[in-house]
Each structure stands twice: as C-alpha cells, then as structure tokens.
Amino acid sequence: MLTSLALIFLVGLGLAAIVQQCKLPRIVGMLLTGILLGPYVLNLLDDSILGISADLRKMALIIILIKAGLSLDIRSMKQVGRPALLMSFLPALCEMSAVVLFAPIFLGISCGEAAIMGAVLSAVSPAVVVPRMVQLIEDKYGTAKSIPQMLLAGSSMDDVFVIVLFTTFVSMEQGGRANLMEFANIPISILLGIVVGAVTGYALSWFFETQYAHQHYVRNSMKVVIILGVAFLLAALEDWLKGVVSISGLLAVMSMAVVLASRSTIWVVSRLREKYGKLWLAAEVLLFVLVGATVDIRYTLSAGLSAVALILVALVFRSAGVWLCMAGTNLNWKERLYCTIAYLPKATIQAAIGSVPLSLGLPCGKLVLSVAVVAILLTAPLGAMGMDKTYQHLLEKE
C-alpha cells in the first residue's frame, strides 16, 4: 500500500504540474495518473488501496466540504435561497429527461435502462465544483451576488436528488416498483442533514468556548482534528440510519462547518480555513487519482461516438435547466453563462455508481458504465478548464 500511495502522490503531482504548464487544469493530470496507474492500464496500484478507494475518496470530499462550509456566510446564503434550491434538482431533471428521450434512439436501449443511465449521468461533481467555488469566495469573485455560494449549495444537494432517483430506477428495472417514500426521502434527507449538521456545529462551538472560558484553550491544530473526527461521524451517520431514516451526511458536514464559522471569530475561522486548505493539497491528489483509477479505458473506446453525442445533447438540456433556475434573479448573461459552465463537470458520483448496474447483472450495465466513463473524461476537464479560464471575464470582483 505504501508503494501505491507513493506513486499516487509523486506521479499525480508530477503529471498535474506538467499539465498545468500546458495551460490545462491540474485535475486532468491527476485523472490521467489514475487511468495509467489503475488496474486497466499499468496495474501498479495495490488491491488493498483499491479496496478502500471509495472511503478514501469520501474522506477527501469531507475535507473540501468542511473548508467550503467555513468559507460560506449564512447572511449571503439567505439571498440565494430560491435559485440554490432549484439548482439542486432542475438541471439534473432536465438532463435526465434528455437521456430518457434520446438514449433509446442513439444507443438502442429501453426507456427503463435510459432512466438508469440518465440518473448516473445527471449528477454534478462536487469534487470539481466545490474547491473552485471556495477559491472564488476567497478571491471575492461573484460574491457580491452570492454566485459561488449558490453553486456550492446547489451542487451539494444535487447528488442527494440524483442518488435517490438512481436507486428507484434500478429497483424498477430489477422488477420492483417505484416507492413513493423514496421520493419523499429527498427533502427529508436534505432537511435532516442541514438540521443535524447545524446542531453539531453549535455543540462544537459551545465546547470550544467552554474550554476557552475555563482557560483550557483548544489549539487550532487540535480543533482541525476534532472537527474532522466529528465530520467523519456525520458522514457515517448516513449509513448507520439507512433503512430507518434518510439523511445526507455530506450536507450535514457542510452545515456543521457553516454554523461553526458563524459562531467563531474571524481570526479563528481564517486559521481553520488555512489548515484545511493545506490538508486539501494532499486530499485532492488522492481523490482525483483514485477517480481516474476507476476508469476502464476499454469501455471508453467501446462506447463510441454515439455516447459522446448523447452526452453533448444531455448537456444542452442541462444548460437550459440552469438558465431556468436563474430566471427572475439579478444575474446578467455573463454570470448566468458562468453558472452553466460550473454545472458541466461530472466525476465522483459517476465513478461511485456507474458500475452498480453492471455488478447487479443488468443487461445495460456495461453500456451505462461505458457512457459514465466517457462523461467523466469529457466533462471533468471541460468544466474545470471552463471555470478556471472564464471566471475573471464573466464574474465581477467585489
């Protein structure tokens, strides 16, 4: 495992630096590292690290979500309530509808199989979007109209909506029925995640204040460890309560960080953000290299131009959904265009659930995974590059 970790960090950082010199996002180099080192090309990664790949990716996501929560301002979040809520489901719904309409024509599959494929494809990648929105908040781009905050909130809730629909469609394709309670679980999961996270954040801030009042000052480095441990518990809570009540663990993590930031001094929050920024340097490499390692390049080549055409058509529908979410807001056309670009990338959710239909033995399993792989390779660099190259031109600096 140590050799694998060494390769992930050294080769990942090396390729990321080379790609950056070519004026491309670092994420492209990390994804390429994963593809090259993964089991489908050079096979240099140990089975033990591939076995815990999903958990390591989730840990990396938790780190950036904490940093995102510490960067969010509750007052600015109130200004973007309606658009953020719409962004959490409307673009995904538009993209899903496009796949259901066009996948049977392009790929010759049934509507049920197209629904599964649409659910896999329609999730935006928080791993690509969140770190860039955090950077925009720190650099004060678009913050006057709370654009990064809106995209942060929307992309975090989007995955909850998509995963619930994916589970329902897979159950139907296996011969089951659509359960109305599954759809009711979407708002329940979001609300419970926010409430549990907020209560936890309040409790943590009270604990830190109490320790300080009793002259037992908790160092910021120790706070980082405590917050991280609590965040892991919140993420695990989602699995513990599965089958009992639906709760979004990742939303709970971000909600906890938001409340903690609102109850702490500016100096403490800036120090915590800085420390989590340093943690993210390592976590980012781990996340994207392991996402790349899930990509089977053979499936990519077998998917062909039909898969690329389907993804591009679906992205047009998704973009229309984003513009609908912006209706009635004070955003100009440049800012709306940036929001559209920010909602293009796919990576983590596709890597996580793309292989599920195949593992369940569904006839469409191999094709769904193939199209998911193409979507990652096409949209992750496209969205990342789009955000990195356009934010200074499309957003106003506060």
Q: How large is the count of helical segments?
A: 19
Tell me the radius of gyration: 20 Å
Span between N and C termini?
46 Å
Q: Find the count of extended strands (DSSP E, 2+ residues).
A: 0
Structural class: mainly alpha
Percent strand equals under 5%
- Summarize the main sheet: none
Mean pLDDT: 86
Return the string of H and E elements: HHHHHHHHHHHHHHHHHHH
Low-confidence stretches: none
| Portion in helices | over 70%
Envelope shape = globular
Please give a handful of descriptors for the protein shown.
19 helices; 398 residues; mainly alpha
Describe the structure.
The protein starts with a helix and ends with a helix. It is 79% helix and 0% strand. The longest helix is centred in the middle third of the chain and has 34 residues, at 180-213. Helix 9 packs parallel to helix 19. It has 19 helices and no strands. It is an all-alpha fold and 398 residues long.
Secondary structure layout plus pairing:
Elements: H1 2-21, H2 26-37, H3 47-51, H4 53-71, H5 74-79, H6 81-87, H7 90-107, H8 111-121, H9 126-139, H10 147-173, H11 180-213, H12 220-240, H13 249-262, H14 266-293, H15 297-326, H16 333-342, H17 348-353, H18 356-359, H19 365-394
Helix pairs in contact: 1-2, 1-14, 2-14, 4-9, 4-12, 4-13, 4-14, 6-10, 6-15, 7-8, 7-15, 8-10, 8-19, 9-10, 9-19, 10-11, 11-12, 11-13, 12-13, 12-14, 15-16, 15-19, 16-19
